[in-house]
């Protein structure tokens, strides 16, 4: 039974070691929304805040 635990522990250690690795993560810089995007978002929010059928 102890021989079965060792491969399972190695597998879990391998899987967990990759979970926290951020070496391949890329982050795009955020750009402020343009005036056109802000107006589209405002119109969308107004439309979605209305009750259906109103």
UniProtKB/TrEMBL annotation:
<protein>
    <recommendedName>
        <fullName>Secreted protein</fullName>
    </recommendedName>
</protein>
<feature type="signal peptide">
    <location>
        <begin position="1"/>
        <end position="25"/>
    </location>
</feature>
<keyword id="KW-0732">Signal</keyword>
């Amino acid at each position: 039974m102890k021989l079965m635990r060792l491969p399972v522990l190695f597998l879990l250690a391998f899987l967990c070691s990759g979970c926290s690795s951020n070496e391949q993560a890329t982050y795009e810089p955020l750009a402020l929304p343009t005036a056109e995007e802000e107006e589209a978002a405002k119109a969308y929010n107004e439309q979605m805040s209305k009750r259906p059928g109103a």
